Amino acid sequence: MSDEEKPPREFVESLMLKGPYKTSNQSTLEAYVEAQALGEGSYYFEANKALLKIYQFLPKTADTNKFALVLLLSMLEFPSASVDWLAISYLIPERIQKSEPCSTVLQCTNLLDGCEFVEFWKTFDTLSSVCGEDKYAKALLDGSAKKTLQNGILQAMSLTYRSARLDTVLANLNMDSSSASSLTEISSCVESVSADTVTFIATTDNIKRGRVFQEGVSYGAIANMMSNVVTTE
């Protein structure tokens, strides 16, 4: 397999069945992480975790950029894969966590996981510079990452709230008022958008709570709801 060829998911799955932590899998798993970043492969947590485990066995061969890339890929699965971040973080040496680009990526994941969306975007905007010239991180960040994350944030809000102020939603998504009409295109959880309110699709959870988001309401409620959803999956 050449440097430019990326393994298909089916091939990676076959390696996982035979022995996920075989050190001989390292180059293939690295290539599949790159494929995910380029949009040429679907997200595969088990394969990404296996690569980091192999790095534990062979620390001298570990690629620092791959640690950050695996974290970025799991971040884009928000809110459904929040538990992935925790599992992955245990496999990243402390010295790597404290160095760039992992340090800033971890800040982003923590802010996102805590539903501190406005602060999240401020940190997210610095990722392109801290990731340097890594072409795979650049491809991921310059591609559909922002829209994917906006969809995830809307999904997270809809877990608890039936409606929210439009200006608050736009701030959480790092969008201006001119983009309000596109919210229904970004996420299927948005039912409608009026002059000042975003209404989410009714669910058992957001109806039974009867909540309308207001300024000053803690996002802890959302974080707790997300934890319950992940636990029951």
Structural commentary:
The protein has 233 residues and is mainly alpha-helical. The protein folds into two domains: 9-143, ARM repeat, domain 1 (Serine Threonine Protein Phosphatase 5, Tetratricopeptide repeat, Alpha Horseshoe), CATH 1.25.40; 146-232, no CATH class. The protein is 59% helix and 5% strand. It has a three-stranded antiparallel β-sheet with strand order 1-3-2. Strand 2 and strand 3 (197-200) form a beta hairpin. Helix 2 crosses helix 4 (64-75). The longest helix is centred in the middle third of the chain and has 14 residues, at 145-158. The radius of gyration is 19 Å and the shape is elongated. The two termini are 37 Å apart. The mean pLDDT is 89.
Give a short summary of the structure.
With 233 residues, the chain is mostly helical.
Question: What is the topological layout?
Answer:
Blueprint: H1 9-18, H2 26-38, H3 45-57, H4 64-75, H5 82-89, H6 94-97, H7 102-113, H8 117-124, H9 127-130, H10 135-142, H11 145-158, E1 163-165, H12 166-173, H13 183-186, E2 190-193, E3 197-200, H14 204-209, H15 220-232
Antiparallel strand pairs: 1-3, 2-3
